[in-house]
């Protein structure tokens, strides 16, 4: 990547765009609602079970002008979900400024591993053990979504739940490859700990993006 383009990416004026698509939100609080997804490349958190590992290397995704990204998004939906990869790898301020100028609702799905940037109507925090969230984002998260790969993740979920604000919605979601094993355990856990809600990747059951 040439230095001038790299500088624009570092400033959030361009972003390594992996994909963008209009679909149904499959997970968490807004599941079932139509939304336009912007998937940004770049992530060094390194979850071994990640189902979009092709998003990790930003160099393989074309640096794209945020004006183009925002214009595309505005044609499809009022709700825009920025995801990754880890979108907070980059400065989200310039992109969300454009989206808000167009009157759009801005949502982010993030591990919280990097400082929060941008203006958001909804923050879905999905913390990872390998690189924990910053202190700031816990108090701003609207939704805490913990991926359950094994039994130790229940312990991790409870530890994370002590850090978020009182209005934050709490979700436990089975990692897709372990869903048959972990769903019964998650159901039992939620029934015993009803502050939590079960989240499923319903878009995969619906066979949509």
Automatic annotation (TrEMBL):
Residues 30-209 form the Radical SAM core domain. It catalyses: 6-carboxy-5,6,7,8-tetrahydropterin + H(+) = 7-carboxy-7-carbaguanine + NH4(+). The keyword S-adenosyl-L-methionine applies. Substrate binds at residues 24-26, 39, 83, 209. S-adenosyl-L-methionine binds at residues 49-51, 85, 126-128. Pathway: Purine metabolism; 7-cyano-7-deazaguanine biosynthesis. The keyword Magnesium applies. One of its GO terms (molecular function) is 4 iron, 4 sulfur cluster binding. Its cofactor is Mg(2+); S-adenosyl-L-methionine; [4Fe-4S] cluster. GO terms for biological process: tRNA queuosine(34) biosynthetic process. Homodimer. Catalyzes the complex heterocyclic radical-mediated conversion of 6-carboxy-5,6,7,8-tetrahydropterin (CPH4) to 7-carboxy-7-deazaguanine (CDG), a step common to the biosynthetic pathways of all 7-deazapurine-containing compounds. Belongs to the radical SAM superfamily. 7-carboxy-7-deazaguanine synthase family. This is 7-carboxy-7-deazaguanine synthase.
